Amino acid sequence: MRWKWLFVFYWKRLLKSKLYVGASILFFVLLLVRFVLFFSDDMNAGMEYSGDLPSEVFMLVQIVSLFYIVWFYFLYSNELRYGVSSWFADGYRILLEKMSALLAVHALCQGIMLMMSYGVFSLVYLFVGVEPSDLYLSLLRFLAVYQFGPLVLTVLYGIIIALLLETKKVSFFAMLLVWILTGPMTTELFIDLSKTVHARDWASLLFIGKHAIQRAYDSYIGFEVDRGGEWKWAAWFLSLVGLALLSSIRFTQTRKERNAVLKALLIFPFLIVLTAYHSLQTNTKAFTRADQTTELEEYRRMPQTIKADLRYRIQSYDISLHGSRAVVRVALSQLETNRPTFQLYHLYPLHSIEADHQPVKFTRNGDLVTVWLPKRTSTLTFSYEIVDTALIPYTNGRIVLLADRAWYPKRRASHMYQAYEYQVAGTRAWDGAFTDQFVPNETYTFTLNVDGDVLFCNVPKRGTVYRGKAQAVTLIKGQGHQLVDQGYEITYPADWPHMAERAPTVIHQMEKTFRHVQQIASTAVSSLPNKIVFSSSGLSSFMAHDHLVYNTNFFSIGTYHMERDYYEKMLRLSVPPKGSRIMYNEWISLATRWLMQKQGLSVIDWSSKSEWFESQPSSVKKQIEAIYQAFQPLDVDQKQRCLRTWYANMDDGWTWDRILEMMQEVNGVGGRH
Fold it and tell me: Where is the chain membrane-spanning (predicted)?
């Protein structure tokens, strides 16, 4: 009964507090301001990354939490100042009841704020046109972990500081320090440190927020919510409750009370370690800076030239995916070696390889697996585990397995990903690409037996399995939507709005641009694939005969054809590299401007070169600049002839002088007409 009256008492105090209520109102005022700023940015016109809107709560929680800590500190320290609890025989019990009642009142208030925030975000999503899906449920979970959780802990910060320091002046410094070190913006404030902490490092438990606060949502994977974040919050909560109990020991009045508290505290280390361990085991790598950096560094260190034996042919694949366990049966033909080499993602634990139902030895060198066969065989069975990594995230049962990734054994002699170095303004820079951006033309028969709901697969569904011929397979199990427009099957992320209205414009622009590209170069595929997968971040882009995966890089899908990036990407997706890397890239650079000119776009920067320009010797730079000067004054048809001739003849022997000579010849022909 007394706890009930304490709950009511603190509830009334909270509602009458100008500081607490003002801080809560400030949260929503700042949220409204952030929405206004977000929608006033032209880049957000199409809301292609509306899933990142909830990341705004990190800054808001950081701001508001300071006011909460101060209010709880003053409330509790003032009660301790007069030692009212010592006037009663069960004074220590009263003190604990006050702590728990105050925590309950604050949790209730934050629960109300959580639902209000969820309502605001949901209304905004509905307003911009985000279709109903389980995205709205995962949004609630995201806000519960990253808004409700950190704000609930503020009451414990205030109580602990009051118990330890009471009304001493140093308490203000302590509150400021706690506010900085425990806020969800910690990873951004100490970015140099957070960039080195992996998802499953013990140091990650020091951060209650995300490692990269700007990214809240990944296409098809969803919000960064998993059991790891919830277990981490539980570990923090238990640690702070234990610290509060430890800090309150000096207020006990009897030995029995002290012993009871000490016995209770013996349980807390076990519970804290248990929850912390579960947090590390279930944390995702999908959004963590350090995991991606480490993974790319591994590829930089991998030798690019590796001995591989590809004297065999693959006839068909039989792939079984149940949960995280993958079993792939590869039917071989024309096997002319006992040491066949396959490409398989090196971070997937490979449990066994069987030939004729018998285990065989194998060795791994990066993404290349060499199988040691005692005798020739017609089939090999690979058993391995699909795990969560930076390049192929696997979170909450959602996964995006793209055709350019080695998520099943492939007949390749290179790693899945290639890292390369170049110079920008004299500074060393790194970039990389998946080696199957242009998927080889050979086709195989695929049979996929997959549990759970599949959003997209480029292989047609036959009954309960997916079966058909394809160059490679893309499989998506995650949040997203699909529609059919003008014969195209379009898949897009769950946070993309109004795609049914915008799709016709997008498809028309893609078809027109692809036809223009075919006027200057031979493309990897003869026509635009009728299956298109869009994303705004995270995924790579590539074009196969039967499907296209296109990442807009945060541009609006409805307006991105006005930007240079769109035309450059369409060229890189459809036109295979030829000749030297620098020459191919400068051809892409000039072809991009020609495509923009074909569309009648007036804002074209003719002076900028490719990113590889700065790494070239001065003599080569002068030659390239001369080519740009000769190319710009040509009319559209002359530019088209130049680009077509350039690409057709481009090889290792094609020189800059020959290109310049060719442009001058074309200009001369045009002038005589």
Answer: 20-37, 57-76, 101-128, 148-165, 172-191, 233-249, 261-280
- Please state, as a whole number, how many other Cβ atoms lie within 10 Å of the Cβ of residue 251: 19
Nearest-angstrom CA–CA distance, 476 and 416: 19
DSSP string, 552-619: -TTS-TTTGGGSHHHHHHHHHHHS---S-HHHHHHHHHHHHHHHHHHTT-----SS---TTGGGS-HH
Q: 1 and 90 in contact (C-beta within 8 Å)?
A: no
Token readout for 538 is 């995270």
User: Which residue would you say has higher pLDDT here, 43 or 666?
Assistant: 666
> For 571-585, what is each residue's pLDDT tens digit?
999 999 988 888 898
Cα(232)–Cα(238) distance, rounded to whole angstroms? 10
CA gap 237, 241 in Å, rounded: 6
DSSP labels, 375-397:
S--SEEEEEEE----SSS-EETT
Contact by Cβ (8 Å): 188, 98: no
Are 510 and 531 a contacting pair, CB within 8 Å?
no
Per the listing, tokens 């490679």 go with 472
Query: In sequence order, what DSSP letters do the residues of 93-159 get, joined into one string?
Result: HHHHHHHHHHHHHHHHHHHHHHHHHHHHHHHHHHHHTPPPSTHHHHHHHHHIIIIIHHHHHHHHHHH
Tell me the average pLDDT across 158-182: 91
Residue labelled with tokens 């807390």: 268
d(CA 628, CA 632): 6
Reported pTM: 0.89
Mean pLDDT, residues 552-565 taken together: 68
Answer yes or no: are the C-beta atoms of 479 and 135 closer than 8 Å: yes
The three-class DSSP label of residue 665 is helix
Q: Any idea which residue has 């701001």 for tokens?
A: 63
| 66, two tokens | 């300071």
What mean pLDDT do residues 451-467 have? Answer: 94
> What CA–CA distance (Å, rounded) separates 236 from 164?
19
396, 145 Cβ separation under 8 angstroms: no
Who has greater pLDDT, 301 or 668?
301
What angle, rounded to 10 degrees, do the helices at 18-40 and 2-16 form? 60
Query: What helix, strand, coil percent values describe the chain, rounded to 5?
Result: 50, 15, 35
Strand order in the sheet with 341-343: 341-343, 368-372, 361-365
pLDDT over 50 at 673, yes or no: no
Average pLDDT over residues 236-253: 91
Cα 230 to Cα 304: distance, rounded to the nearest angstrom:
41
Q: Which two tokens stand for residue 311?
A: 């004297």
Contact 526, 478 (CB under 8 A): no
Spatial neighbors of 643 by CB under 8 A, at least 6 apart, are: 520, 521, 587, 590, 591, 594
Q: What long-range pairs does 648-657 form, CB within 8 A, spacing at least 24?
A: 648/521, 648/522, 650/578, 650/579, 650/583, 650/584, 650/587, 651/578, 651/579, 652/579, 652/580, 654/579, 654/583, 656/583, 656/620, 656/623, 656/624, 656/627, 657/623
Query: How high is the pLDDT of residue 609?
Result: 67
Q: 83-87, 464-468, 580-584 — which one is most confidently predicted on average?
A: 464-468
Closest CA to 663 of 627, 637, 610, 635: 627
The confidence score (pLDDT) of residue 671 equals 46
Return the number of other C-beta atoms located less than 10 Å from residue 583's C-beta: 23
